[in-house]
Every structure is written in structure tokens, then in C-alpha cells.
Amino acid sequence: SQVSAYRARGILLTGGLTASIVFREDAPSDSAFLDWITRDALNDTVSYDQIQPGARRANIASAGFRRHLVDLAKLQIDLGVDGLFFDEVNSGFEGSLKWSWTGNEGFDDAHLRAFNRYLLALHPDWTREQFRSAFDMDSTNALDPALSPDSLGKNFNYRTYLSSHGWSSTPFNGSNPLAKIWGRSIQNRMRRFGTNFVETSTTAWWGEIVDSVRAYAASKG
What we know:
Elements: H1 2-8, E1 14-18, E2 21-22, H2 30-36, E3 56-57, H3 63-78, E4 83-87, H4 109-122, H5 128-135, H6 158-164, H7 179-182, H8 197-219
Parallel strand pairs: 1-4
Antiparallel strand pairs: 2-3
């Protein structure tokens, strides 16, 4: 009814929300919530209680979270908004106060699986030995094109790699040959043509969300 009142006065209403803050009550279960939120290189969750108690950054690599965000957009479209604005799309890589905003965040399983696929796409003709040699991977934790990139137990696990080199607290250590390939993003500055894994994967996942929302909006006229 309020939207109708705005429109009667020639006012268009834009809805939306922060795209990277979630609370436990947003998720249908504890397991879903843990899948939706970011992790550091120690595989621990990262608190954003300074924003509001219980706040956590959302993990855009989580298919479950992306569906949740689309559902929120559909709900607002159904309520009659004329547009949607989502803030802080790529803010799940900051590290928060826990890591003094140095970027130690986003190292969850979903991102690690996607990183394996990214490395394989960068070097489609490389063998396991070439990956091991180029990036100083341990013989028991080297990227193997013959194995599923999604199997973090049998194939390469970037968190394990960081731990074995002593970089779990400083994943962007200058000695880490994978640091630049993993990369950083600038909060609220999405780059359409990224130059690293974090930028390109975030842009791709966000593109999927935008396409889904626009298609739903079109279906509603």
C-alpha cells in the first residue's frame, strides 16, 4: 500500500539491502549459516560484531547464500519496488578487526574449490608436477589435473598450502607465489574484467545473481 501511495505522487521506490552481511536468523539452519559465512585461512569464522552483534560477512561462493540473496530480491519485487540496490557485494574479503583489515578472509571450502578450477583454467596443459614445481606445492598437496578439483581432501587445498608454509596468518606474504593469483578486491569497487581469482570469480557469481533477478523482474512485468 505504501508503494501505491508513492506512485500516486510520481515517486519511484528503490529497495535492496547489504549483499554481504548475514545473521544466524537469516539462515534456515546452523549448517546453512556456517556455509553462508566467510572464513579466514585458519578455517575460522570472522566476526563483524563491531557493525552489530552477530553480524558476519556473507560468502558469495556459497550457492546457498546466492539463492538466499535472489529470494530476498524476489520478495521485494513482489512487494512492488521499482528498482533494487545491493551494497557491499564484494566485502567478504576484508579480514575485519580480527586481522586488522589485511584481507585474511574468503578462504572457505567453496572458494578453495573454485580456486582449483581457476588454476586449472590458467594452465590447462600443466601436469601435477608442473603445478608442484611452479608454486612450491608439497608433494602430498599438489594440484592434480587428473583428480576432481572439488575434492579438497584428495586434491590441492589452498588452506593446507598456506599452513604448511607458515602463511595462515599472512596469506598475502610476499614469498607466497599464489598470493597475486588469488588476489584482492577493493570493497565496493567491482571490476568487470578482473586480473585475479577473487575479482573474476566474484564478478561471475554476482553476474549470475543479477541475471536471475532481472529475469524474475521481467516475468513480473
